[in-house]
Structures are given as structure tokens and as C-alpha cells.
Amino acid sequence: MTDTRSRKTIDTEPILDVKNLTVTYHTDRGPIYTVRNVSLQIAAGEIYGLVGESGSGKSTLARAIVRYLADNGEIKSGSVKLGGTDLLALPMSKMQQVWGSRITMVHQDPAAAVNPSITIGEQIAEIARLHLHLSSAEAKAKAVEMLKKMRMPDPESVAKRYPHQLSGGMLQRVVIAIALTTNPQLLIMDEPTTSLDVTTEAAILDLVRELLAEYKMAVLFITHNLGVVANICNRVGVMYAGEILEEGTVQQVFRSKLHPYTRGLLGCLPKITNDKRNVSLTAIPGYIPRMNQLPTGCIFSPRCSMVEDECKAVRPSLLEAEAGHFTACRRWEILQSKPELLMDSQHARDFSKHEEGPVVLSASNIKKHFSVSAGGFASLFKRGRVKIKAVDGVSLGVRGGFTLGIVGESGCGKTTLSRCIAGLEEATSGEIELEGELIPYSVSKRTPAQRKSIQMVFQNPDASLNPHYTIGESVARPLVLMGLSKKEIQERVRQLFNAVNLPEDYINRLPHELSGGEKQRIAIARALAAEPTLILCDEPLSSLDVSVQAALINLLIKLQDTHKISYLFISHDLAAVRYISDWIAVMYLGRICEIGSAEDVFMPPYHPYTEALLSAIPIPDPDVRQERIRLEGSVPSAINLPSGCRFHNRCPRKIGRICEEQEPPWQDVSEHHHICCHITLDELRTLQSEVIVRQADSPGEVR
Amino acid sequence: MIAYILRRIGSIFVIMFFASIIIFAITQFLPGDVAQLVLGQFATEEAIANLREEFGLNNPFYVQYLDWAVNFIKGDWGNSLVNRMPIFPMVMSRLRNSAMLAVVVLMIYVPLGILLGVLAALKRDKLPDQMITTVSMVFVALPVFVSSLLLIPFFCHYLGWLPANSSIHPDSTFGEALPYLILPAIAVALNSIGYVARMTRAGTIDVLRTDYVRAAYLKGLPRWQVLFRHVLRNALLPTVTIVAMDAGMMIGGMLVAEVVFGYPGLGRLLLYAMQNQDLPLIQACSMVAVTMLCLANLVADLLYGFLNPRIRVK
Ligand SMILES: Nc1ncnc2c1ncn2[C@@H]1O[C@H](COP(=O)(O)OP(=O)(O)OP(=O)(O)O)[C@@H](O)[C@H]1O
Ligand code: SF4
Ligand code: SF4
Ligand SMILES: [Mg+2]
What we know:
The complex is a heterodimer of chains A (703) and B (314).
Chain A: E1 14-27, E2 30-43, E3 47-51, H1 58-65, E4 73-82, E5 85-86, H2 92-98, E6 103-106, H3 110-113, H4 120-132, H5 136-149, H6 155-160, H7 168-181, E7 186-190, H8 198-214, E8 218-223, H9 226-232, E9 235-240, E10 243-249, H10 250-256, H11 260-268, H12 309-313, E11 319-322, E12 325-327, H13 332-337, E13 359-373, E14 385-399, E15 403-407, H14 414-422, E16 429-434, E17 437-438, H15 448-453, E18 454-457, H16 471-481, H17 486-499, H18 516-529, E19 534-538, H19 546-563, E20 566-570, H20 574-580, E21 583-588, E22 591-597, H21 598-601, H22 608-616, E23 624-626, H23 657-661, E24 666-670, E25 673-676, H24 681-687, E26 693-695
Parallel strand pairs in A: 3-8, 3-9, 6-7, 7-8, 15-20, 15-21, 18-19, 19-20
Antiparallel strand pairs in A: 1-2, 1-4, 4-5, 9-10, 10-12, 11-12, 13-14, 13-16, 16-17, 21-22, 22-25, 23-26, 24-25
Chain B: H1 2-29, H2 34-39, H3 45-55, H4 61-74, H5 87-122, H6 127-141, H7 144-158, H8 174-208, H9 211-218, H10 223-245, H11 247-261, H12 266-275, H13 279-307, H14 309-312
Helix pairs in contact in B: 1-13, 5-6, 5-8, 5-13, 6-8, 7-8, 8-10, 8-11, 9-10, 10-13, 11-12, 12-13
């Protein structure tokens, strides 16, 4: 099951040749040069990864290449050649013939990219009729053939279905099928897996890789996820504020990292082998500059720790540091000679001793069943309602000053569980104990002290900030409820702003004047204001850029250490969970299937589901070997729960009837590590003799 | 889909039930006594009492209501108090005339409203859009009687194209009636064109912004194909609802137009019934109007469900 793919650079004429492309948006504040002087070439059969943080101009570049910019966008200069045709010289009517036949695009949100009222088959057949000049019947057959190629189960019936009947992962396959139907010269994929679960993402990436071995096209693959780039691309360009700062083969860029920004991005990412005790993350200081207020000289200079006076004087252009490897840093030679420079500081954090605190929160057998309308005539009556078992018997405990991470695909009940604990959702049954004391299900029935003790930080910080209050007032609100005097409140707010590393002069700002990361800091400050014992963090990082994520993770860890807070940390990002958590619970369809200390859960034996999750993590290091275990389909609906083991219809290790018929037993790997599966631990150990994610045996080995 | 239809029909029965109670109650509490009305001002006390007994007017409210409702369902709508003619055929013949008018109204404003709305959306914020938006705002604000009074001098007196008076024989065929229908229909339609155009414009703009329309363009489809195959199908969904929701407005507008132009439809009959305090006739006309309203909504719901696969196929 080991992934063996060759990754060679292909030295042929490039299919796509972009030279010195500059794009502006005309705005009220004047023109903004969003992409400046960008050149890139992609050969047939090559996957070029374009990475960069949000707003770096990746999508703008892609749209400029296909000449489908927003109305206020304009290509100022440069050239775009596709297989020798100068695209920028074509009249729009000719360009329209290029779309769909020579260039196709795949976008981020597959559910939005397909027409809700046209069948899947027709949406594929349409492009086949148009560009391949097939008859109606032939086009239909072609659609089914394409769906088959996407390894869609039962393609004939899928072709007749409507988009709302398919899951996100299936829809993305449909969109890819549309894009490949005409076998174009250039395929542009803009964040094609960003909105998908890790498991789905891994399956889609596998599919794309295999299909592209068959269709020899040039691919521009845009993503903000370095792990995905390392996983699928041959070459990579690192984009920052509208320019490419480093470019080379994936091996060159990920190994030598000849630009401080690249090193910064990689340093921000928690590694799956690290945790908060041995490594701290290096966040890049500051923010991406606004495109209309660019610094003179090197555009990265305000955030670069290697900056010299000369860097600020002249803007360095891309130089070839080694064959095919370009960097826009003047001081690349220093980076080349010191591979570890600027990378994460390997020293141990001064983290308080790993001692067992008292149990702060203990939840046992929590259930949350929603009753919803079944739809149809029956729903006119009470009996027509069905139960959704979102959380179905979860027990867990969190110790003082420790972090329990919860992972699982979307729809597995993570959020509902945390909302039940917070009392925002009334549990159906089970017991919630806070510091040894049974507390009511609903937050409105809890005492003020109990309410204070449990705080929440949500994925979307906007949801918890009133847009009409200054952020200082938002943070002060819990303090007012605690009955502090005006002066004490002012003092506490200042302290809290310091604690979350926000300048004090921010106190009087309104939420819309803050960036996403800053708003999330405010949400954390507000949670802290109540001096809680436990903070429930529900995907607090997912909407943020990696550099901001790193700073927030560092902040959360620092606060835990100074305030002795416990966290329940929910995320689909396994590396982040591994890094920040002491304990990890893996959830599937409303139940926990494996729980243990973070190190244990990431070491064999694994629950088969954990194994699949780990194998799906995109790892930002081309030299890492990863077992390849893929799950079929998506999480089933919580209305029709599978019998026996809930995972049995997707489990790659299923052992037979017993899995379908009997609930699996809990098995204790050690005192603190438990797995719920029919396979015995010994057998799991033999099946999973190796760690799923490990460094390649010899560096440089090709996967 | 079947469940969906059944649910809609079920809800119509509920609405009809409450509407009938309200209509019945209001006509009951209208000033004047039915027996008195029937017998005239100089009837003796005794004759009135007898008639009250005969009509069941001394029974409790709910018994009277049930009697009335059962008879209504059976099609036994009684006789007009004024001219002693059976009500059912009278109302049906007027309903037919109103339906003819409604058809012409719909044929004018639905296509025109959609056309203007789509045009405005495609030329968004440019001159055509601004013109269409302004004009439709004026039309929406213009009451039917005002627009009628503006249309008549122009088309009838100045151009001399169309008759100003539509008081034709109630049994005219559609072909005979058509020339007399156009002007009142325009007067009613003007009011609704604005709504439809605005809804269509908003719906189309929303859809034009979607990823799937971008994807359709990037498939290389010509503009008109993107518009007809991908945009309109989804953009017109809210328009269908608006047309149905507007049915009330339209029925109201038709009432006015029928009176202004003297067209022998349900509206004029209702006015006549009210002027003469002809209670059974008022009840029958109102019930028919409410039924039509419900049916219009049902048709819209079904159409919406049919056009929207999310409802059609589960
Ligand atoms: N139509 C527009 N008018 C003005 N500015 C725009 C427009 N579209 C994008 N921008 C700005 O251009 C910059 C680059 O945007 P772009 O969408 O290309 O970035 P990106 O790298 O794709 O980001 P993300 O990762 O968030 O998708 C951003 O600052 C964005 O706010
Ligand atoms: S050129 Fe100077 S400022 Fe820019 S990245 Fe290199 S060292 Fe940093
Ligand atoms: S019990 Fe069976 S189906 Fe469930 S995880 Fe274990 S092997 Fe797989
Ligand atoms: Mg983008």
C-alpha cells in the first residue's frame, strides 16, 4: 500500500508560458497592482503548485491566464502563451473557444460549481457536445464513461442524479470529470480540495494524480496548503503579495527552502511528529502588506528577520540559485549553507511538568438526539419524525491544565458534543460533571459560577462579536456581569489585551477594523475574561492563514501554561491537534472509537479509522513516507446508523460478519489508551507494524 | 413529490376553511337584516319573523355556518336577494369572463416583466437597467384606477385604437371579447410588471454571480446558451413565486379595472352585490375569489416544485 510515484521534472517545451504578467484591479482607492511581473512555465504532464497565503493573488493570476477577470480587473502587461498561441492577443470570441476545449478550470466549492437544476450526466455531456461535437447519445455515453474514470460507483445512475443528491467529494469528482472530458492542454485547479474532509481530500488527490498520468496536460494547482503541494506537485511557486518569491521542484523548495518566507510558512506548520513540549512554532511576525502600500525594496523585508539595509533599497528579482531553483532573496546563500536557519526552534518549551491534575470536566454517556421532519406526507404527523443521533454515548474527561483534542470527519458530531458540554445544546441524556459536581444540561439552568467556568471559542469569530460594540466593550462584558468596578474592568481589559498580544490602542476599535486572526484573539480574550477552567475551542483556526494559525496556537499554549486552563480542542487538522493536545479522542458517527494520550494515538496499534485519518494527512515534506489507506464514500447519515460497528461499511480492515452484527468491544492498549474494535490488539499490531507517517529511510528517496 | 402535492392541497383546505368562516362572519355582521332586506321596508313584523324562521336566521351561528358551508360545497348557492335568480350560474358566467381577462393580463405582464427583468440584470447599473428600474417603480406605485384614467384618453380618444367601454354582453366569446379586454388588461398588468421585473432582475443577478454560471462560461458555452440553459432556469424560480403571491394584487386590480371599464366580470358583480346588500351573492363572489387565489398559489407551488429538482427528486 506504499505510495510509489515518480516525480521527475519534464524538460520539454512548456505548454503554458506566462511572462511578466501584471494585473491590476481598479478600485475607489485607485489601481491596485495585485499580480506583478509574474512569469511561470508549465510543461505537459507537469503539476505546478502555486502556494501562498490568502490575498497573495493566486486566484487573480489564474483568472488573468484564462482572461476571466472581475469587471474591474485589467491585464496591464505581459504575455500568456498556451501551446504557442498568444492568448492575450485573441479576440474574446476566439478566447471563448479556448475555454472548455484547451483550458478548463476546477474551483474550490464543488457544490457551487455545478448547476443545481441540471442532471450530473447532462452537465458533462454538454461540454462533450460542444467541443467534441458528439451527438446527444454519444455525449451521454461519454458522460458515463467519464464518471467511470472518476471511479464513481454506479456511474449510470449517478449521471441521472441531481447535484443535491451527491456528497461534496462526489461532486468534486464530477467537476473534475467535466474538466477532463475535452482533454485540455491546461487544467487550472483553484483550491480544489480546500472545502473537503482530509479523507476525501486524500482520495481526490490520488485520483487527480492517477488521471494526470493518463491525460498529459499541464496543471496549475493553486492551494494554500503546503502539505497538498508536497503530495501532488512536481514544481512549486511560492507567491507573496502578488509576486513569486521562490520557485523550483518540490524537492528543491521543500529541502533547501531558499527564501525566508518559505521557511516561515513551513515553520508555522505543526509537524505530526512534534508536540508543544519539544518544539514551539515560529510564527511570521506582521501581516501581508496591502498591495497599494508595498514597501520599497524586498516586499518581504518588513517581516524578514534577516533583513539588511540593502534589502530595503532595491527589490531583488528572481535569481537562479541552483539549476531550476529560483529565489527572490538576496541572502539566499546564507540560507543554503544553514538549512535549519529560521526553522522551528527545536528547544523544549518551558512547559510545566506533565503531572496529572484533577479531572476538571467529566462527561459520561452523553447523547444528543435531534428529532427532525422525515419529509413527505408522514411528516404532517408526529410519527413521521426521525431521530438523528448526532452524539450517541460519548464519555470523556479533561484534566486541569491539559488539552483534549477531538478529531473526526465533518458530520461526526464534534461540534454537537462541544455545544452540549457548553450547554448551548441540551443533551438528551448522560452526565456532565464540572470539578466533581453534576451540572444541568442547559446553560440557562447553570449557576453563574458554572457558566463562568466553561467558555467557548468558535470557528467564526464574527459570530461572537457584536459589530456595534468596540472590542474593548466586548471583552469587558463578562467582567461587568461579574460585578467588577469600572476601574477594575479597565485594568483587566488591558491585561487581557496584553495576554492575547493585541496592542492596547485596539481597545476602542470596532470588529470590522480587525483581521480574522485579531478577531479570534478577541474571542479568546473574552473567553479568558471569565477566568474559566475550561475553554472549548471549536475549529478556532480553520478560517485563518497558517502564519496567523501558528501565532494563535502559540498563544493558546502560553495561556494554558500561565492560566492553567484546560482546552477541549476540536479540529479536522490532525497535525494541529497532535501538536496542541495531551489527549486525543477520535470520533466517528457520534461515538468515540479511540482515545488515548497524543503520542499513543499516533503510534500503532491504531483503530482502523484513526489509521485512515493519519494516512490521509497531507504532509508538507516530500521526504516523508505515508502508508496509503483510503476510505470509500463519505460519512453515512446519522439517521440510518450502520449496525454493529458504525464504521463497517467503510472500514478497510473489516474482518467479516461480526463487524456488521455486533458492537465492537473496548480494548485497553495501556492504562490510558483504548481502542473500540473487533480486531484484537495483537492482530492490529501485526497488521500495523509500521508507523503510518515516517521519514523516508534514505533522504532523497523518491516516493 | 406526491407528498409535497398532498401537503399543499391539505394546506389549501385549511386556508379555505378559515377564509369561509371569516367571509361568513363578516357578512353576518354587516348592517341590515336579511329578512328585512328581502321583504323590503314596509314588511310587517310577523312576515319578517316568519322569514327569519324559514331562513334559519334564529339558529346559533355555527349551525347557520354549517348549513351555508354544506350548501355551498353542494353547489347550492341560493338565489340572489335582489333579482331572485340562482346565484351559481350567474357567478360562473362572470367567473369565466374574469378568467378571460386574467389570461390576457398574465399574457401581457409575465413575459414582459421577465424580459425587462432579465434585460436589466444583464445591463446591470447601465442605462437600460436604470430606465427599467425607474419605470417599473413608477408602474408599481401607480394605482389601477389612475393608470386606467391615463390609458383611456390616450388609446381611445387620441389614438382611437381601442374601445373605452368594455361593457360587452356577458356571454361573448373570447374572440368577441378580446378587443375589449386589452385596455383593462394593460391597466392591471402595468401594476404587476414592476414586481415581476424587479424580482426577475434580482434573481438573475444572483444567479449570474454563482460559481456554476462562471463554470458554464468557462466551459466555452456561448452567452445565449449560458443564459437560457444555466441562468434563467434557476433565476425564474423566485419569479414563479412572485407571480403567485401577486395573484391577490392582480385580483384586486382586476376588480377595479372591471368597474372602471364596465367589464362584466366577477369584480363588477361583487360591486353590484355590495351596492345592493345582496348577502348570498357577496358570499359567493368572495368565496370564489378566495378559491381562485388558493388555486393560483397551488399552481405556483407545483410549478416551483416541478422546476426545482431539490423538491422534485428527494
Ligand atoms: N475585483 C476585485 N477588486 C479589487 N480587489 C480585488 C478584487 N478581487 C480580488 N482583489 C484583491 O486582490 C488581492 C488578491 O486576491 P486573490 O483572490 O487573487 O488572492 P488569493 O491568493 O487567491 O487568495 P485566497 O487564498 O484567499 O483565495 C486581494 O487583496 C483581494 O482583496
Ligand atoms: S532580500 Fe533581505 S529582506 Fe528580502 S527576504 Fe532576503 S533577506 Fe529578507
Ligand atoms: S470493528 Fe470491524 S469494522 Fe469496526 S473498525 Fe474494527 S475491523 Fe473495522
Ligand atoms: Mg483564491
